[in-house]
Design a protein that fits this description.
about 475 residues, FAD/NAD(P)-binding domain, 3 domains, 5-stranded parallel β-sheet, 23 strands, globular, binds adenosine-5'-diphosphate
Length: about 475
């Protein structure tokens, strides 16, 4: 009997104040917040777990592998620790970390009895009504408030042989079949997932070649920062203007056929990873609600995260504004607050201070207004920088490449933005982001005693160059 033929039991109807569709970073913070304020919440997700794709197949598993890889790189370089890393072991540890977090979320659910969590997929029947279909049967829910947090999925390009390639889902999904560490890996794409995968596997010992369709990496990132990163990525080769035509099987290996300078070329590898972006996931029946989409298919929202339909909010990756888990969490709370206020906009999302990190080796992080953005928008800036070669922690682990660069408003010296490339970028950018969102100045940063010996010292040191 296939799935469609399973007789579905109507398990009943539920009335709630808010239906939360999807239990990722966009969903569960709002669900908990609303339940804490006495609202009756129904939340559903076909995974039957909280955490969304970030935990299931994204940030958590990929950064677990990166952390472990970082340990092995340092151990080898600094302690002459021999031995290759056992990739099967890394994959086991990846699943174990995911398991810990699933358990933690279950505990949080138990602490919020006002949230009814159903394993199932939501179909929208109209404004305020939905049907949830899961292994237990069908439940119909009436709820005047709705939060859509259905995220995105991997986009597979349509060239022949795309199905022979791996995607980030194959590399990172919970319980995904173990894969062998490829001796040679081809990566198709020039976005952050492509570069992170390339960096990770070359650090693990694979010979990696990246094929980029256009002549730019990281299209949405400040080009000046991208060129700094490009200069620092020593471990794998990148070929630009190399659109892939097809991928073929070649005696247990893969052959990628692509174009370069008017000629057909090929590269062979043990595996090919395609990272061609992600596309929005909308619940079935979304059209019945009347919500508007933008030309790329993401849900249109205002600064309070409400869609074009009052009472329906779209939060996280599905609105295409800032596709990062931490942004989704904050957006989720903004939506919850506005729902609690009877759909009045009492809270708004500040997109100007969401930090972003690209977890390559070395990593890169940025927030707010940076060099090229300022130039493009005609915003004058005063620039300060400090090289990480002089940072004590960078010296301890001998990762001295990179810099902190901060951009201030002339006169007031208010911090507008900044970037970090190199050690601890993902940590430093939080302090810089908080300073941007709080309107701090170079003097505020300069007078703060960043703790020694941490790389954060580079932030106050950078600010002090202006005073
Ligand atoms: P975000 O970071 O925006 O929360 P994620 O992609 O991490 O995005 O999470 C989105 C979640 O939404 C996923 O766990 C996915 O299973 C869930 N989802 C997608 N479509 C539906 C649907 N129709 N009904 C319920 N949940 C859904």
């Amino acid at each position: 009997m296939n799935q469609c033929e399973i007789p579905l039991v109507r398990t009943g109807d539920m009335d709630a104040d808010v239906l939360v569709v999807g239990a990722g970073g966009a969903g569960y913070p709002a669900a908990f917040r609303l339940a804490e304020s006495g609202r009756r919440v129904v939340m559903a997700d076909p995974k039957g777990e909280l955490g969304g794709n970030c935990l299931y197949s994204g940030c958590i598993p990929s950064k677990t592998l990166r952390e472990l890889c970082q340990i092995s790189i340092r151990a080898r370089r600094l302690l002459s620790w021999p031995g290759p890393v056992d990739f099967a072991d890394l994959q086991r540890q990846r699943d174990a970390v995911q398991q810990i977090r699933f358990g933690q979320h279950q505990e949080e659910l138990r602490e919020h009895p006002g949230v009814t969590f159903l394993k199932g997929s939501v179909e929208l029947l109209g404004k305020g009504r939905a049907r949830i279909q899961g292994p237990e049967g069908i439940t119909e829910v009436s709820a005047p408030g709705m939060i859509l947090g259905t995220g995105t999925r991997v986009r597979r390009p349509d060239f022949p042989g795309a199905e022979l390639c791996l995607t980030s889902d194959d590399l990172f999904s919970f319980g995904a079949p173990r894969i062998e560490l490829p001796s040679e890996l081809a990566v198709v794409g020039g976005g952050y997932i492509a570069l992170e995968v390339a960096s990770l596997f070359s650090a693990l010992g694979s010979k990696v070649r990246v094929l980029v369709r256009s002549d730019t990496l990281l299209r949405n990132v400040d080009p000046e920062l991208v060129s700094l990163l490009h200069g620092a990525l020593h471990d794998f080769s990148i070929e630009f203007q190399a659109p892939v035509e097809r991928v073929e099987s070649a005696g247990g290996r893969r052959r990628v056929v692509y174009h370069s300078r008017g000629q057909e070329r090929t590269v062979e590898a043990d595996a090919v990873v395609i990272a061609a972006g992600r596309e929005p996931v909308l619940p079935q029946g979304w059209k019945r609600t009347g919500i508007a989409l933008d030309p790329r298919g993401f849900v249109v929202t205002d600064e309070g995260l409400m869609t074009s339909v009052s009472g329906i909010y779209a939060v996280g990756d599905v609105n295409g504004r800032a596709p990062y888990f931490h942004a989704a969490v904050r957006e989720s709370l903004v939506a919850a607050h506005n729902l609690m206020a009877g759909n009045r906009r009492i809270d708004v999302m500040d997109y100007g201070s969401v930090p972003v990190t690209i977890f390559t080796f070395p990593s890169l992080a940025y927030v707010g207004i940076t060099a090229s953005v300022a130039r493009r928008q005609g915003i004058p800036t005063v620039v300060a920088r400090a090289a990480l070669s002089e940072d004590s922690r960078a010296q301890m682990v001998q990762e001295r490449e990179g810099e902190v660069r901060l951009f201030f408003q002339p006169g007031s010296l208010r911090l507008l933005g900044g970037w970090v490339i190199g050690i601890s970028a993902s940590e430093l950018i939080n302090e810089i982001g908080l300073a941007v969102s709080s309107g701090l100045t170079a003097r505020d940063l300069a007078e703060f005693a960043d703790q020694h010996p941490t790389t954060n010292e580079a932030i106050s040191k950078t600010a002090r160059t202006l005073l």
